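Hey, quick one: can you model this chain's 3D structure?
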Amino acid sequence: MRSLSGDLLLQRLGEQPDDKLHKRLYNAIRTSILDGSLPPSSRLPASRDLAQELSLSRNTVLTVYEQLLAEGYVLARQGSGTFVAETVPDSCLSTSSVPVGSDGQQRGIELSDRGAALLHHASASPKQWGAFIPGVPDVNAFPHPLFSKIQARISRRPTPQRLTYSNQGGSPELQHALVDYLRVARSVRCSPEQILITEGIHQAIDLVTRMLCNPGDDAWIEEPGYWGIRNILRMNALNICPLAVDEAGLVPPEQPTNPPRLIFVTPSHQYPLGSVMSLARRQRLLALARNAGGWIVEDDYDSEFRFSGQPIPALQGLEADAPVIYIGTFSKTLYPALRLGYVVLPQPLAQALKTAHAELYRGGHLLIQTALAEFIQQGHYTAHIRRMRLLYARRRAFLTHLIEQHLGKQALSEFNNNAGLHLILNLPDETDDVAIAAAASARGVLVRPLSRYYMLPSRRRGLLMGFACVPEEQMAAAFTQLLACIEAPEATP
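Sure thing. Here's the predicted structure for all 493 residues.
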């Protein structure tokens, strides 16, 4: 059986001009090293093996290896083999990885308008762990050994149905487990047939938008609101209508001239400000969506984490057959890299969107979905959430104390409702919160500028500060670094 390196070199040998075999092999290996096909520190096949793979004499291969070794392209390690050198000779750095055209000029890359717009508005952080990254749970506190045991047992003798594509919206076991959990925890009304498992909220919103909207349709979003929703709506050519948020949630116009096709809300814990949508506001939105033939998309992203007061039921369960598409995720309760979310679809939409999901995204991950179903049904999921509530409540209280001690109570948002995985640290209107966040990042402290969550020019200044993944013993030092950035002259333009 040929190795990957052998396959590569056999192909490169055929591309060489008709010359002596050792020269052709030398050029094939050298070119592969220079263009990165054989990366630094990668092991070359043993001379005997490579000779057999390429149908060459071993002496030919040994001659080439010795020449490459003498010129510094490879290193020989006694008892280990021959490896590509970390650094190739300076005189051989003439090849370029920049794409060029037939005229030798560097080739320009032209993105689509919507692709360029996406990159212009991109806000995903390159760092996703540390003080005070918002929205990230303590992934170390997850019971990994327990979950791994469940996965290992299910994976020993998997059925063919769990190893093929899913065209019914995910694992039936997880769909049934979610029906029971959501009914008790969130007052959601649904059947297993209404549940679609997705790879997170972004995929769910993309699917809903593509299937229910035409280019140019109006979509209402919260102002400020989650930037990820805006980017998906832009890519799907919707007309984004940002509506202000107050203490009762999104504020719809009294008499909308153009009824929206979709209304995106986070009613249980508005993101990012933290207000809770009132019952009157919820009922008004439900009536508006029914009358307009539109749909409310309810993002219930971190509703499990309330640290005081009564749980707030989901908007979806407020009325029978509500025009609500309910979206949830395991990213905040378990860990983000799991890439599992779910959508509770209204009955009339369920089969159409499940079919579309299978066509667009080819659902899978059925083994891990089945393991998660068992994790939920055996009570481990709710037990983990209870433990995390206690842990996050302590960390939240510690961060709140730091902010009040150093900046005063007025530095905390007025929508502070003792829920979620982040706090808003208010800053004066003349402050450059983007510059502060950049300066903090340079010091290893991760916060998000509140102004980036707005679309319209009128925007508040502040910082989103996550506390879930930050042990108390690390908070004080990180907060000291952040204070230095806030108090620096560059913070005020």
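One thing worth noting: The chain is about 40% helix and 10% strand.
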